[in-house]
Amino acid sequence: MNITTAIAEVRKAAQAGLPVLLLGSPGVGKTTIGYALAEALNLPYVEVRPAEFEAVDFRGIPTVENGRTKWNVPDFWPKAACLLNVDEITQAPMELTSPLLKLFLGGQIGDYRLPEGTVLMATGNQVSDRAGCSRLSSALRERCVVITIEPDFAEWRGWYQEQSFADAGLLAFLESNPAMFHKWDSKLDHNQPTPRNWARLSRLLPYEPEQETVAGIIGPDAAASFCRWRRANVQLPSIDAILAGTASLPTSPAQMAKLVEMLPATAKARWILQDYAVMRLIDTMDGTYQVQFLKALAKQQPALLKEKEFSALVKRHAAAIVASR
């Protein structure tokens, strides 16, 4: 089930008063569902990670008042209605099984009860994911509506394009290599490509990380493919910046081919007689790229070939142009 469908299904369970357990491989966006559902229900989001606690922490420290033991409720338990997510429940120590059973069965731990209107859910990995989790107690699992989350690239793409850190090149790579979107192999002992890790990499890309660093996020195989693709297809600097001399010509043949393909439109927009900027740039290029530019110009802006500067360039490369036809 993808995230959009899961949010709708968890909401149905919440309306029925049933807790939900979301299972899935690392990085597929399980916790995201909790945040999204809390927002949709207009509830605060509260997260508890049982792996960080011991059994006594859940119930609270006892004190004696008037000869009777009183359990002091820990501050992390919500005091008002909220969406309570028991995150990474499959990493909870065994001694917390009993208190978690009481929480998911009756919304209670010791003398503490969840506030009325609280929506209870949990997230966790499968044992087969080898993500540091243990097999969940069948009694605890039976208390929940179990939903398995699967990665969905089309859905993730819509979310990613709205993020401030979205990178057009990264998205283009994944569109060309959809099998790289999520490849989780529990036998491997390094990070792997997941929706979460692609988002992390996107935040780092503006700082031009080395391939080894990229591998530390998405794994060596995915990093090699992505970096190789990026070197050939990374977005060009601004053409105006190149013409002004504040940005250098790209070094990749694929980038240069893209540049000369785009220059005819720039030549038309700036009009060659104003400053000859495009012509001066073309003069700095290797003859092969000059020929490619003339072919693109003939296809896109043939009228400009009549300009004196361009016609001289045509004469210079006439033999190569004729030979390539």
Structural overview:
The protein is an alpha/beta fold. Helix content is 48%, strand content 10%. It contains 17 helices and nine strands. The strands form three sheets. Strands 2-5-8-1-9 form a five-stranded parallel β-sheet, covered by helices on one side. Strands 3-4 form a two-stranded antiparallel sheet. α1 crosses α2. The protein is elongated and about 105 Å long.
Rounded radius of gyration (Å): 30 Å
Q: Please, how many helices?
A: 17
Cα distance, first to last residue?
A: 53 Å
Oligomer: single chain
Helix share, percent: 40-55%
- Largest sheet report: 5 strands, parallel
Strand segment tally: 9
Strand order of the largest sheet: 2-5-8-1-9
Mean pLDDT: 82
List unreliable stretches of 5+ residues: none
Element-level helix/strand string = HEHEHEEEHEEEHEHHHHHHHHHHHH
Q: What share of the residues does DSSP label as strand, in percent? A: 5-15%
- Tell the overall outline: elongated
**SS class:** alpha/beta
List the helices and strands and how they pair.
Blueprint: H1 3-15, E1 20-23, H2 30-40, E2 45-48, H3 55-59, E3 62-65, E4 68-71, E5 83-86, H4 97-106, E6 108-109, E7 112-113, E8 119-124, H5 138-141, E9 145-148, H6 153-160, H7 168-176, H8 195-204, H9 211-218, H10 220-233, H11 239-244, H12 253-270, H13 272-275, H14 277-283, H15 287-300, H16 308-316, H17 318-323
Parallel strand pairs: 1-8, 1-9, 2-5, 5-8
Antiparallel strand pairs: 3-4, 6-7
